[in-house]
Queue: 2 jobs
Job 1
Amino acid sequence: MKILVLNSGSSSIKFKLYDFPSRELLLAGSIERIGEADSSLRLKGRNLELDERVALADHRRALESLEEIFKKSSLLDSFEELGAVGHRVVHGGEDFEESVLIDEEVMGAIKRNVSLAPLHNPANIEGIEVIGSLSPSTPQVAVFDTAFHQTMPPEAYIYALEIELYEKYGIRRYGFHGSSHSFVCKRASEMAGMDSASFDTITLHLGNGASVCAIKGGKSIETSMGFTPLEGLVMGSRSGDIDPAIIFHLYRELGMSLQEIERLLNRRSGLKGLCGENDMREIELAAASGDERALAAIDIFVHRIIKYIGAYFVLLGGADAIVFTGGIGENSSYIRARVCERLEALGVRFDSELNERGRGDFLFSTKDSALRLYTVHTDEESVIAEDTYRIVSLAESMNPTP
Ligand code: ADP
């Protein structure tokens, strides 16, 4: 069965096509600048590579072009041939604790959650609706960024605000990056040879967006992102935690509009705000040549991570492992070392050579370390494809086609 995974954004669609049960990745690509005159369509497969500039007015035109390419390359005659389509949906609110087969009721709930993710859910909905109209009989599955964190206890997800704000308006902590945290935790428990039901871990997803999660026996009990992905760690261009009163000060004393403040916190803060650069590779190079702002940006980035690890270690009542993932977590031995050398109080010991030389998924703690340290490559699309395959296969076994 061929499974198409779609991550629809407001002006872009990222996609991967898999063959199941072999799990072979047939192709991957993206359509960007949808709605502009020079939309780009890039994809790469085994015998296929494309990089086109075409005007794609909207998501429908973009997905129709993709279908035509599949047809021309004899991968599929049409989307009707797909076994299923799996969608990344950013916000499931409190409605979804796991991935689901999409029907009218599910669509209604995703639409109800638009107010919680006004920048993301509408684009996800559009992707689902376009596939639904191009290929009405193809089953579609929604995989939510928030679902994995629905196991957090109320004391972790309720803000100390007027309780009615939670009860009436759903203002609470939700957490994101759920597919990534759950995937790398499971992978690390396999590498440790431990049952995930008794594996307690702290997972660090360090990419442009960054979050940390405390996972007890395979279940998220606390995570650093909150009502939106702005809370928590220092990120590429997002501030992470700040005193909310700064917003009033910026508004009142510096005359900034709310729109400007929102942009400042999301786009011009974090590493970028601290040193003018959000690419960790460039920041490391600048730091190595003595750039003081780059050095300070790394110190602040690492400090925040350590603070969360300490807190999560206590919340978990001790942990078996710390897992690093995401562009920075997987590739920067420097940041991993900077974090791990500050964890001596937890009995963490790491092997510098393993840390520097390791490739792919690897262990880099020493034998006498109290916690295992892993680096695991995250693959959110493959999690979406797996969930989609599992859910569609289950639905088929319960309702076999006559
Ligand atoms: P996104 O959140 O956009 O998916 P990624 O997970 O791809 O982001 O992570 C992007 C980050 O990873 C960037 O800051 C980039 O500089 C960093 N990164 C990638 N490779 C390396 C490397 N070898 N060393 C340090 N940082 C790296």
Job 2
Amino acid sequence: MNHKYDTVRPVNWHDNQLHLLDQRKLPHEQVTIILEQVSDVTQAIKDMVVRGAPAIGITAAYGVVLAAKNAYAKSPTDWQTLITNDIQKLSQARPTAINLVWALKRMQSKFATNNADPIATLLQEAKQIHQEDIDANYKMGELGTELLPNNCRVLTHCNAGALATGGYGTALGVIRSGYAAGKITEIYADETRPWLQGSRLTAWELLQNKIPVTLLVEGAAASLMRNKMVDWIIVGSDRITANGDVANKIGTYALAVLARQHGVKFMVVAPTSTVDMNLTDGSQVEIEARATEEVLTIDGKNIAAIGAKAWNPSFDITPAEFIDFIVTEKGVVEPRSSGMDIIDNAV
Ligand code: MRU
């Protein structure tokens, strides 16, 4: 385990409260918000106080604990019915990442009526979901690093790091492990318009660990590849369908097509909690449409011509044919030949 590069935790449970590092404020301020009500947890996921597929799943799991605790205090016999609506709302906070629904199903599987202390059982399950995610990231870090050649230069997109997970990160976990192993010599990160996950979050967490990073605007990625400055693209995912199609931050698809054109390898890193075997292909994934203000303004200030409209899909689908490897904690898949068949993630 590589603790030197594992220092950031976006979600923490302390004294029966949920602590979230407010990612809207990074990198300039490190503010933690403390939540005790499930409705506030749902709002925090919607507002992207916490974001990234595994991190919102973990947050939702702790949200169920808060909901159950409050409902149990009101009615030890009827608490499950009382929180049905809360769970429904949590599940709809953001539509694309399947980890959210996956974590809620795991929590619901612990709702047995004969449970002597349901709150303790639920908290244990939420903590377990959290720890399993960190463990999966370490495993994927090892598996992904094995695929990389020496002296490798990588580009990542969005933030698939500690901030997007329980800790350590998926794509950034591989980048951390590959850098620690001396295989990665250069790390590029797309700034990731419009929310700037790359320049605000990925750069921040790498620099927390004193890992050098070079930012570029997404539009520069083609030139980076054409100028032979990068060997591998490594990204995370919000949902992977049974055929190996990958939903991830808007702009990922463009990178994958460019990578194929320029002979750059393309790796997706995601735990099996991101795999949705119920969907046959990416056309069935709901793509979140976010507010047009994210495109038209920065910090509340207009940056576009007044009257211009905006289109702001938050994710896109990269077809399996453009992906060389999907790294999960259960093994590496080459989706072009096998889809996601080796994966068993039934809850
Ligand atoms: O809108 P976001 O910031 O939640 O989008 C996050 C991503 O697209 C990440 O790449 C994905 O969730 C994988 S995180 C390990």
